[in-house]
Amino acid sequence: MKRKLTAIFSSTLFLLLVSASLAMALTPKEELGKLLYFDKHLSIKKNQACASCHHPRAGWSDPLNAAAPDMFPVSLGSVRTLNGCRNAPPSGYAAFNPVFSYDEASGLYSGGQFWDGRADTLKDQAMGPFMNPVEMGMPSKAAVIQAIAEPKNRKASIYCKLFMQVYGIDLKSINYNDPDEIDMVYEMVADAIGIFEKTERLTSFTSKYDSYLAGNAQLTAQELNGLALFEGKAGCNLCHPSAATANLDGTIVPPLFTDFTYDNLGVPTNDNRLLVDCGIDNGLGGRLVTGVDPNADLQVGKFKVSSLRNIELTAPYTHNGFFATLEEIVRFYNTRDVANWPLPEVSDNLNITELGNLGLTADEEADLVAFLLTLTDGFCKNMPDNFVLPEMTVW
Asked: What is the CA radius of gyration of the chain?
């Protein structure tokens, strides 16, 4: 109960600070993106927005999943009898994901949006959910634009004003029979959403750990021990780098807690009722398609390494939402190979060197969790003055 109350308190504090931040001035394009991001009218049943699955209350992930991770490991669609097969990744800090690429020297893929990196930028990513039948379910790009402009949308008048101000487009005179014009306006919609997702609302760097790195806060003994384990015995930082970068001018670039690469952790199949028809998920290997990309076989079962920022709020964990709590996934990392865990969903390309038998005690697992809780935004009101942002993805 104490753990649950702590999470609720942290979520409430996080939401209060984000809500205050959302009220601050935005550029016209950012304001347009924010309105589109939170608009449920742009779904087939008028009940789902981007924010429905990527909400500030849940660290920019799905609040329904976070509230009941055992029951809802994946997100429901606008049509409530439909759902996706993957846990919705947080949109917070997604602006820092580099473009998907392959490094021949290391043989590693990295970057991209989604669990399999199939979209390069936030703009690319934002074009997908509107017409995905298990998400917002709209039948066409034209239908999305009509939903933005139609009088039944309470935001229509402000949309008309902002589209004209930002893009020079009159929403009232759209030619819905011109596919080129529809494509152009639809890209503007995605562009505005992506620009909003790059704002400090989603990239605030206001956690206790950020304050600690800036020299403005102290970690408790348990949190410090967790940090030492994270960077030492547990080896978490091998994929989730935790060190800040110090510049010559004294400024600090805070860590993002991901190296953006792909791994097969050996996550078990999730037999939740929402996932029974999903089949085996081959991750990056499935996207690359065996036989088309010569590296596809070596990527089967691999998913993008997630950022750990706000991880306290973003349950459940991993691509299929198998783990409902931080305690569970930390224990899995520690004991995958020596405890009675179910078999991996995909056993190919398993990471057998960095997890599975870490030899952590129960107290050390608890210390790691305590450290992870310091990564929740909202500890301080603003990003530390001596911080500079990491490089964002080229638009």
From this structure: 21
H helices of 310-382, where?
326-335, 362-372
Report how far residue 124's alpha carbon sits from residue 43's, in angstroms, rounded to the nearest whole number.
Answer: 18
Can you tell me the distance from the alpha carbon of 229 to that of 130, in angstroms, rounded to the nearest whole number?
Answer: 42
Q: Where are the alpha helices (DSSP H) in 63-155?
A: 63-67, 122-126, 141-149
User: Which of 92-101, 114-123, 287-296 shows the lowest per-residue confidence on average (mean pLDDT)?
Assistant: 287-296
d(C-alpha 322, C-alpha 300), whole Å: 19
pLDDT of 2 reads 46
Give 3-state DSSP helix, strand, coil % of the chain, rounded to 5.
40, 10, 50
Share of the chain above pLDDT 90, in %: 91
Closest by Cα among 127, 130, 122, 87 to 281: 87
- Reading the block at residue 51, the tokens are 């924010």
Q: Are 277 and 322 in contact (CB under 8 A)?
A: no
Q: What angle do helix axes 156-167 and 179-197 make, rounded to 10 degrees?
A: 90
Report the CATH number at residue 58. Answer: 1.10.760.10
For residue 129, give its domain range.
Answer: 1-395
Q: pLDDT confidence of 392, banded at 50, 70, 90? A: confident
Token couple for 301: 């079962």
Mean of the per-residue pLDDT values of the chain? 94
Give the C-alpha distances (Å, rounded to integers) separating 140 from 133, 146, 171.
Answer: 11, 10, 17
**Which pair of structure tokens corresponds to residue 65?**
């999943």
Query: Cα–chain-centroid distance for residue 46?
Result: 24
- Average pLDDT, integer, range 358-373: 99
| Domain total in the chain | 1
